[in-house]
């Protein structure tokens, strides 16, 4: 279970960094290309959120999940997952959306995902990297929603920088999960 969670976070982190690099290096890409890349990224992130929503609840047999109070963020993760998948599919089906509409959708997605990450971070031991990811997502999402007409170049850079930083933090979180598992000795060997 722990390896699978770390693996999913790692994939999400790598995709975020790659997406961010493309958005920063080539901000002049057409909105269509950026929309298609974002659509795939949103779907992958949504699937990862849904996997977290439907994983087994923590309990005596599943203490490696790290929840401080024994609760599970199923609703928050499920909502963030559905929003990500729906948004990703919408962008892939209608890639010709204007930059302003795409920016608003990206902003909403970032805020919803950020709130979910913040909520999850309050339930985990050592969830500082996830809390930072959530806060960053909310700030980036609000900025993008408040100023969607700032221009495709500025939006591409804002999205790219957010994706790179959050991707790095996701990789840190994946490493922490892996490291946490190795520190538990017999429990890590069981997975």
Question: Main β-sheet, in a few words?
Answer: none
Number of strands: 0
Uncertain residue segments: 60-70, 184-191
Number of domains: 1
Helix/strand-derived category reads mainly alpha
Apparent shape: globular
Mean pLDDT: 76
Helix content: over 70%
**Rg over alpha carbons:** 17 Å
| H and E string | HHHHHHH
Count of DSSP H/I helices: 7
The termini sit apart by: 6 Å
β-strand percent reads: under 5%
- Assembly state: single chain
Describe what you observe in this structure.
The chain has one domain. The protein is globular. By secondary structure, the chain is mostly helical. Helix 4 packs antiparallel against helix 5 (128-146). It has helices at 2-25, 31-54, 74-93, 99-123, 128-146, 152-182, 186-190. The model is unreliable at 60-70 and 184-191 (pLDDT under 50).
């Amino acid at each position: 279970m722990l390896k699978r969670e770390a693996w999913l976070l790692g994939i999400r982190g790598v995709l975020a960094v790659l997406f961010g690099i493309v958005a920063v290096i080539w901000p002049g890409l057409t909105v269509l290309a950026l929309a298609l890349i974002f659509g795939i990224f949103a779907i992958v992130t949504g699937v990862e959120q849904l996997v977290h929503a439907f994983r087994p609840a923590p309990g005596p047999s599943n203490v490696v999940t790290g929840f401080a109070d024994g609760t599970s963020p199923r609703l928050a993760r499920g909502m963030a997952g559905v929003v990500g998948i729906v948004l990703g599919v919408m962008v892939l089906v209608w890639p010709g959306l204007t930059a302003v509409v795409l920016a608003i959708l990206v902003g909403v997605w970032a805020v919803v995902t950020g709130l979910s990450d913040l909520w999850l971070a309050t339930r985990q031991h050592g969830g500082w990297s996830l809390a930072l990811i959530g806060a960053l997502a909310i700030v980036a999402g609000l900025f993008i929603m408040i100023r969607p007409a700032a221009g495709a170049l500025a939006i591409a850079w804002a999205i790219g920088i957010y994706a790179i930083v959050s991707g790095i933090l996701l990789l840190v979180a994946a490493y922490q999960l892996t490291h946490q598992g190795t520190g538990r000795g017999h429990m890590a060997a069981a997975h």
